[in-house]
Amino acid sequence: MLFKKKSMIVFFIVGFLIVGTQIVSANSIPLAELRTPNEQGVSTYVGQYVTVEGVAAVDSGLWHDSANYFAIVDPEDHSKGVLIYLPGTTQPQVKAGDYIRATGEVSVRGYATDIGTLVLIPARPEDVEIVKGDGVLQLEAEKIHSDEDPGVLASLEGGFVEIEGRISDYSNSGIVRGFWLDGSSDGNVDDREGVMYVKFYNYHGIDISHLHDNSYVVAQGILLKGNERHGGYYIRPVDGQAFVEIADRTLPPDLDGKIPGLPFELGKTSQFRDYGLIELVKLETSLPLNRGMFPEWRPDGSGVVAAVGVEEGARITREAAETNLFLFGISGSTVPQQLTFNTYPYAYPRWSPDGETLAYAAAPNLDDQDGTWDIYTAREIDEEDGIVEEINITNHPSFDITPAWSPDGESLIFASNRTGKWELWWQSLSSDDGAVQLTDGEEDVLFPDWSEHGVLFQKRDDDGRFGIYEAELIIENGQPQLGSVRCLTEQLPGSHVYPRWSPKGDRIAFMSTAAGQWDIWMIEKDGSPAQLTKMEGSFLYPAWHPNGRRLVLVGDIDQPSLYIMDVSRALKAPVSSSPKELNPIKPKLEDNVVGGPINHITLPLLTQPALVKPGQTITLSLRDVPEKSVTIRIQSEDYVLKFSGIQCDGQVVIRLPELTPFGTYDLLIETASVQDRQPRAVVVKKPASGFTFAIVTDIHPDTSYADPENKLLPVIEELNTVQPDFVVFLGDLLAKNADKYADDYPELYELLLNHAQFPMYMVMGNHDGKVSGDVSGFSYWQGYFGSLYYNFEWGDWQFITVNTYDYPDYPSENGFVKQEQLDWLAVQLKAAQEENKPTAVFLHHNPFDSRWRFIDEGQKELRDLLETYGVSHVFAGHRHSDQFEQEAAVSITTTKWVEGEGEGAYRLVTVKGSHIVQLHNELPKKSVW
User: Fold this and answer.
1) Does the model's pTM come out above 0.85?
2) Number of neighbouring beta carbons within 10 Å of residue 7
3) DSSP character at residue 259
4) Mean of the pLDDT values across residues 468-472?
5) Nearest Cα to 378, choosing from 340, 404, 411?
């Protein structure tokens, strides 16, 4: 990489920067001075607007394909530099070697994981000036060790560095790519100690296919600090020439040694004796623990097995930071033993009745298109190496989860979605015969528990929420059958899941949201339900001690941890949690400042239509209509309905005649001063117990929507043939930044208007709401598609759209959900629960995905609301792949992006009555097309 070398004189001037409508001053300072620390070790310039100059070390578009993200370094000292992050635009196009002057706010939060790195954030493209292009200066790297002193790393952060060493944990697939490099100061590059991460993204165009584990390389790049493990510093390469392999020091790629375990320390345990709770052990990790631990007592009471992992661990760590199995002693000072050491998740461990064999589920290839969960058993457990050998019990292209042992230890019951929804299946462990289906209905059935007293499980009721059921299981001639099924929680509000028999069969513990959060409840034999956990927080996944007097459970108070409960003391404890007061604010549609089609009629719309049946009422929302009296027409080519309405607080309610013909209608309003029209805003349909809808997400157009070769048009034409009852577009519908919004928004609207023959609803994604200078995706969205979040109904269902890109407070690709929207959502969900309506939610970022952590703010609150009020299904996009997840009460489905030439253009969902009975067209999780 060549720059032209020259001396530089820095002029200290005061410039001005326009931020919104406010003009602020910006001091010009040298790059080296930018890192002057305060008493907390943070730059004194954080939060200030400054101007800096330097030479670009990387082209625009290499580090980020939808924003202008690059680094500049001091021309005289390349170890001094800073990141420039201009979100929402790729302009101006900076080339490596250009001499740059940039003005913006100094921050310690850049793109995604670059949190902690010093970064300059300009407000608009004009604040990045290419003073001189085509530089010819060779970048000189500062040589460092991978275990360099943190003080040295802090001084070099943002600069150009070089490490020489051995590669391990190599990854060249997926979104995030790179490896860990051992170039430690002790000279031992083969012990994988003192390593540093080298990371880039799949769109960087950097090829490392010639490298592998045990390659020896010289790696160069910009030193960054993020919310990574091992101190946080890592290297991001600046081009494809960043890695030079030293062939004579490269070893064969064969891996040796096991993957390191999850690093943790034991902390001081907490005790809540008034509530009967004592923390079993406190694991202190650098990232929060995942609460899906599913603890299980060993039958002799000697310990607890649980699934333990950290959130955000899957893509950024070299240890087994995924959820692995651990064995805990009964003393809080005993270090737990890690049983599995893999970079894929484990869950649902259950001991056999004799305590000799462990059953569990694992997903070795979960991120692959054909990835699955399967049931395994393991008998031999080594004191140091954990599980030595496991047996694959199920091997089916579906998700097989939640195993439960038979009382004699000869068979298992588990949940599988191999029919398209969750059912219970029975598998003999002494026969090669396949699994036998136990349940066959429209309802999802999950989390079985089996004892000599019968079988417990959770089943969706007609309101879409789970109840606890008990049944007998009879095996005749080797064939199992369930009988005498009865519900145990029909008088209890909320969702009820994860039932567990006590050892004597006289009590049943389970999770319930009856009190407004996840709590542990208990039913005495032939008795009434009783609440056991009464503190604020979430309490999950109970399992009985062999003596029947205690439970082990997960308590998510400050962060998830394992707790032991004394049941008798818990029954006597007072209730301390209280319902939260809500201050819901109805979302307001901003004025149309972009010339879009939404003017006086703000609901219903082409992109938020009223789905109604004859005789039903329609509520129209209007704005800037001065007259109270409004003439309304609902008309098609063959039929016209005329109404006279009176405005009240900007709304008019009309009722369709009982004999209104089925069809799609334009909506027109007229007063003395106003006329407006919304095409195809009213859809009159025949009510039916079954219906279908489709999901389309992440289009990212690579050509204009006006181009007949655009990749969305074939999807629309296919859906016109399928004719679903409605289609939901789950975000990232526009180009990747704001540069083309002025063309993309109207062209997409025209494409939908002229070609789509189905009702449609729109959900915002992060690429649809970029803000660059005066260009705002939020304004365009509201001018063309309507409200940023809203709800609608069809059949017995309540459907709610959530905007997970809710005006972020800082530039981000990740989700952001503010309290105002959360309060609104809580009101909608509570009303749906009180009306016993099954509920599904559509959003862009998945709030349940702890392995990737797609939402920065509001994630926990959003997840808790969806679970507390019994949302049946959540449909997400953003990840660009077909994925399926099951929480205790919520099914989460992610649909693949629209690739055009490839598969995954849309997903069809089938509903029968109160139940979603089909989520995908092919097993295990493949969307249609």
Assistant:
1) yes
2) 6
3) P
4) 96
5) 340
